[in-house]
Amino acid sequence: MKKSLFVAVFLVSFFITDAQRTAAISVIPQPVSLVRGAGYFTLPGNGVIIAAKNEEVKRMATDLAAKLSKGLNKITVKEGTAVQPKSISLLLVNDKSIRKDGYRLKVTTGGVSLSANEPSGIFYGIQTLLQLFPTLVERKADVMVDDKWVLPVVTIEDHPRFGWRGLMLDVSRHFFTVAQVKDYIDQMVKYKFNLLHLHLTDDQGWRIQIKSLPKLTEVGAWRVERTGTFGTLSKPEAGEAATYGGFYTQEDIKELVKYATDRFVNILPEIDVPGHSLAAIAAYPELSCTPGEYYVSPGDRFMVWPGGGQHFYGLIDNTLCPANEKVYEFMEKVFTEVAQLFPFEYIHMGGDETARNFWEKTDAIKAMMQKENLKNLDEVQSYFVKRMEKIINSKGKKMIGWDEILDGGLAPNAAVMSWRGMKGGIEAARQGHEVVMSPTDFAYIDYMQGDAAIEPPVYATLRLKKAYQFDPLPEGIDASLVKGGQANLWTEQVYNTRHLQYMTWPRGFAIAEALWSPKEKRDWNDFAKRTEQHFARLTAAEVKYAPSIYDPIVEVSKKDTATIIIKLSTEIEGLSIHYSFDNSFPDQYYPKYNAPLTVPKDAAAIKMITYRDNQPTGRMIIIPIAELRKRAGIK
Ligand code: ACM
User: Which residue in 188, 268, 501, 629 has the most C-beta neighbors within 10 A?
Assistant: First the structure.
């Protein structure tokens, strides 16, 4: 093929269509105010970005120019203090009507102006601006496009509802490299998250170098390799090499912190103690109340939750011993180095799910209870937590912990991260403490997002629609104490970054909107439409997402002792559900669900799929009738 023809073919195939240009504006999170005007602005292929005289703004302008310089476009950056025609102007202003971290973005037929009082506002405004560009802007690979970008005329005024807009990433259960964490930061900032909580330590791995305690990473960062369902994996065999794991060196942490800071993201480090500490104990067994040999857990079952509820006990003692002074010397060393590495004002000390069944049997704990006048094991844990706070405060940092730190009495200055619902947060605020909301009911993005028949198995479900109902500010609590909220991604069942993405998106959209947008702007149907537009953006950016909103919701009940009733619905509007009981695969010509179903005699399974406009939208879901009987409680 001749070169000119080759170029022409690509030009045609990547030409931005009119449909793309005129697609509805879909910004996530929804801005405070967005007014669409008539017409479009065309940025010339050799267009210019004007950047305020500020190093951060210039860096952002350069990044934006790189993103827009695809194919034949070559966008350049010039310093300037006033709007210039036919350009994108990023201007720092002194305007009291723009709130903290807020911005004003105006696209007219003559150009784009983005103004903010601080560089952070410019950064958030750029994220919005990028969402006004065609999806193509998200493509990683360079592509041939026509030599201009077209933007809709619009005026947007915007600022965040909360200052703490977080995602928690568990890098202990599965390790993610510096490059992978940076990639996660790149994804989260597009949706205006500004806090990355790194869960750095747990039973399955210690992931941060502590120079004064080298065994934490020599031993604690490595485990025998297993693949499958966490909690059922086999224990290490005698002499088996610990080959799975990894950790961040202190240089890695500095690199991550710099990368995050450049994108207006704080990193909150979590060192989870006194429970969840098996990796630390494998390195330093003398920190346990229960002497012995320990291993870093590969995902075996060593904690037991009888009945699946909140109560549990350990088959192995995975706790640091609060009655051992060596533990406090250890924590002093850990927090000294952690405090030096992370500029963020908080350190998270965990505090969740501490099994006390070994403490109960420990003479040193009993002696400590007498000496310190501690009435029960809650007070023992509270004693430990208060000492953690003293150490953390002595490093110039504030302490935050999971809501169990309320048990036995809260440390005097502690902030509480409420996960077992919002009641812990409400109680902490009542006591005058700062609060971050991350309740399981709305913000646990390790849970399944659709039917268990199709999702990778986890013990609970959180659908997008439910996540969208997250409101971190319950009625009747002092709003000034609620710093915001976050979604938590525990990674027991997340083995790789593709699945990390699948679990985060689109629920991350819902959490972002809950934390950034005005509450009165919430509109599920509108959000669902915007979510679909953003699926296309994720695809362009090569980021995986869960398509679970397209699958039917299956509710099963029983009419009498033997009859199953199947009720089907969808999370989003406009889908039809088609089903079969005869083992064949349904399509849009199969029966369409419109009323609760009973199972035909002897049927083996129900198969279901959703359609829209004659196109399959959801995945084929197959549920054996035996499973439905179980769900309905029929023996
Ligand atoms: C937690 O989910 N254990 C904080």
Answer: 188
